[in-house]
Specification:
Blueprint (H helix, E strand, L loop, with lengths): L16 H9 L12 H14 L4 E5 L2 H12 L4 E6 L3 H4 L4 H6 L2 E5 L8 H5 L12 E8 L10 H13 L3 E6 L2 H8 L14 E5 L9 E5 L8 H7 L8 H10 L4 H21 L5 E2 L7 E5 L2 H10 L3 E4 L4 E5 L6 H14 L2
Parallel strand pairs: 2-3, 2-4, 4-5, 5-6
Antiparallel strand pairs: 1-7, 6-7, 8-9, 9-11, 10-11
Helix pairs in contact: 1-10, 2-10, 8-11, 11-13, 12-13
C-alpha cells in the first residue's frame, strides 16, 4: 500500500524522478573521490552561474551541517550569532552551533520569524568588553520557520547595519527556492546582491534525496573551510552523488518548478481550510507552510489520517507543510476529513 502524503514536512516527500535519474546516471565506472571529479566541478559551475565566479561552493550532507560549519568558518569562540528565536540553529539543531562553532547564540523574539535592525541593535552592547561575547554574525532564515519571506529591502537594511558594525550576514536557505518563487527573483538578487556573506543553500526539502551547499560570497571566508568540512565529518567520499543531484536540480529551473508547485499547494490548502468554521490561519502564507489554530479535541484523530506536527501546544497551533509532490487530491481528502471531525 502506498504511503499517504501527509502535511508534516517537506522532508517527508520522496525524490523527484529527474534527480533520482541523475543519481543513477553517474553510478557507472570509477571516478576520483572527495569531490575531485567532473560531476562535482560541473555542479559547482552551476552555482557560479547563479552567484558569480567569486562564489566558493562546498557540498555537505545535511542542512544542520551547512549552517553549523558555515558559522564555524567565520567565528571564534568568543563571538556570538544573532538570530530569531524560531530559527533552526536555535530550536532544531540540538545545540550543534554552540558545540562545534563554540560561540553563543543570541535569539531574538519575533512574531513572524523575521528580525530587523532594531532587534539586532538591542544586542549591540559590550563591544570590545572582554566580559561580553562579541556579536559577529546575523543569521537570517529564508523563508522563515513560520513561512514568511524576507524582502530584498529588509535583507539589505540588515546587511548594511551588520557590515557597518563589523559583522557578517549568514542566510539559512533550507527553503530558499520557495522564497525565490514568492519574491519572483533570482537567488543572487536577495543574497549576494543584498549583502549576504554566507549562504546555506538547501535542496533536500525541494526534491533532492540529500545534500546542501555552503556558499561563501567572500573568498577569504572560505580559506580554511576544506579543513573545517573534513573535521565536521561532512566531506563526502562519493561526492558525485550529491553533485549530480544539484546538477539536475539547477538545470532547466527544476528547483523553480518544484518550489512553485509546493507554494501553490500551500495557497490552495490555506484557501480551502479558511472556509471551514473553527479554523484560523495564523500567518501569511508566503511559501509552503500553513500555520493554523485548530480545536485541540480533533488534532489527534486528524493526525491519524494525515500526519502533521503541532507547532504550539499551548495555543493549539499546527503546521501543515506542502511539497513538490503534493496533489490537489491530498488537499481535498484532508479538508474532507477536517470537516467531518468538526461537525
Amino acid at each position: 500500500m502506498e504511503n499517504p502524503r501527509g502535511f508534516a514536512s517537506d522532508n517527508n516527500a520522496g525524490v523527484h524522478p529527474l534527480i533520482m535519474d541523475a543519481i543513477s546516471k553517474v553510478n557507472t565506472g570509477h571516478v576520483v573521490g572527495y569531490g575531485d571529479d567532473k560531476y562535482t566541478k560541473d555542479a559547482i559551475n552551476k552555482f557560479k552561474e547563479l552567484f558569480g565566479d567569486e562564489a566558493q561552493v562546498f557540498f555537505v550532507f545535511i542542512g544542520t551541517a551547512a549552517n553549523v560549519l558555515g558559522l564555524t568558518a567565520a567565528t571564534r569562540s568568543w563571538n556570538s550569532v544573532i538570530c530569531a528565536e524560531t530559527s533552526h540553529i536555535h530550536e532544531d539543531e540540538c545545540g550543534a552551533p554552540e558545540k562545534y562553532a563554540g560561540c553563543k547564540l543570541l535569539p531574538l523574539h519575533t512574531t513572524d520569524g523575521k528580525i530587523n535592525v532594531n532587534d539586532i541593535r538591542s544586542q549591540m552592547y559590550g563591544i570590545g568588553f572582554e566580559h561580553h561575547s562579541q556579536p559577529k554574525i546575523v543569521s537570517l532564515t529564508q523563508s522563515t520557520e513560520l513561512g514568511i519571506v524576507y524582502t530584498v529591502d529588509e535583507i539589505r537594511k540588515i546587511a548594511d547595519y551588520a557590515h557597518k558594525n563589523n559583522m557578517l550576514v549568514h542566510m539559512d536557505g533550507a527553503r530558499i527556492a520557495n522564497a525565490a518563487v514568492h519574491l519572483g527573483l533570482e537567488f543572487r538578487e536577495f543574497t549576494i546582491d543584498a549583502g549576504v556573506d554566507i549562504l546555506s543553500f538547501g535542496g533536500t526539502k525541494n526534491g533532492m534525496m540529500y545534500g546542501e551547499a555552503v556558499v561563501f560570497f567572500q573568498p577569504d571566508l572560505a580559506e580554511n573551510f576544506k579543513y573545517i568540512r573534513k573535521q565536521g565529518m561532512q566531506l563526502a567520499s562519493k561526492m558525485r552523488f550529491i553533485a549530480a543531484q544539484f546538477e539536475a536540480y539547477l538545470t532547466d529551473r527544476l528547483w523553480y518548478k518544484n518550489a512553485k508547485h509546493a507554494n501553490d499547494m500551500a495557497q490552495l490548502l490555506a484557501t480551502e481550510v479558511e472556509k471551514i468554521p473553527g479554523i484560523t490561519i495564523m500567518h501569511k502564507v508566503e511559501s509552503n507552510g500553513v500555520f493554523a489554530s485548530v480545536p485541540r479535541k480533533i488534532i489527534s484523530e486528524l493526525q491519524q489520517e494525515y500526519f502533521f506536527y503541532v507547532w504550539d501546544e499551548k495555543t493549539s497551533v499546527v503546521r501543515w507543510m506542502t511539497s513538490f509532490d503534493t496533489k490537489k487530491e491530498d488537499i481535498s481528502g484532508f479538508t474532507s476529513v477536517l470537516r467531518k471531525l468538526l461537525k
